[in-house]
Specification:
By secondary structure, this protein is α+β, with helices and mostly antiparallel strands. It has four helices and eight strands; from the N terminus they run E-H-H-E-E-E-E-E-E-H-E-H. It is elongated and about 60 Å long.
Length: 156
């Protein structure tokens, strides 16, 4: 097969899911209720409402299982679900094979609202993806932000 005609496609969960026990949700409820009470004691009912809504959204988000998303690396760009990101909008990439969750593809974008895309990749496609990307993008030493790693420690 000629390299210019290749594309690699796979499916993976949209994010790494950590199973949370009942005690995690109980702790979340206690923390949110305590913050709401403190906000009410300081006569800040709008902030109490905001904390309650944020806690509820966090509860629902944490209980939801991630959906399976199709990914693809093509000669035109990176495809995530139904959206394609052309190589002209991407700056660099890195394949992190040492990640405890499995190999990860990190793509640095030139867009301000989404500067780093992280995608899980299957072990058997690592070399093929690297072959396609090294023709189109610069390989750079990229890492997930420290805040993301800290949130993963807490089970988010």
């Amino acid at each position: 097969m000629e390299p210019s005609l290749r594309s690699i496609a796979w499916e993976a969960p949209e994010h790494h899911h950590v199973e949370k026990g009942n005690d995690w949700f109980f702790a979340l409820i206690i923390i949110v209720l305590a913050l709401v009470v403190v906000a009410i004691l300081f006569n800040n009912t709008l902030f109490a409402l905001l904390i309650g809504l944020a806690g509820g959204a966090l509860f629902v988000s944490a209980a939801k299982r991630p959906s399976i998303i199709p990914y693809a690396v093509t000669l035109r760009g990176i495809k995530i679900d139904d959206r394609i990101y052309p190589f002209s909008t991407l700056d660099s990439y890195r394949i992190d094979e040492e990640d405890p969750k499995g190999p990860q593809l990190l793509i640095k974008s030139s867009k301000k609202l989404m500067p780093l895309m992280v995608m899980p990749i299957p072990v058997d496609h690592v070399d093929d993806i690297d072959d396609i990307l090294k023709e189109k993008l610069i390989e750079e030493d990229l890492e997930e932000p420290l805040l993301v790693k800290i949130l993963e420690l807490f089970g988010f």
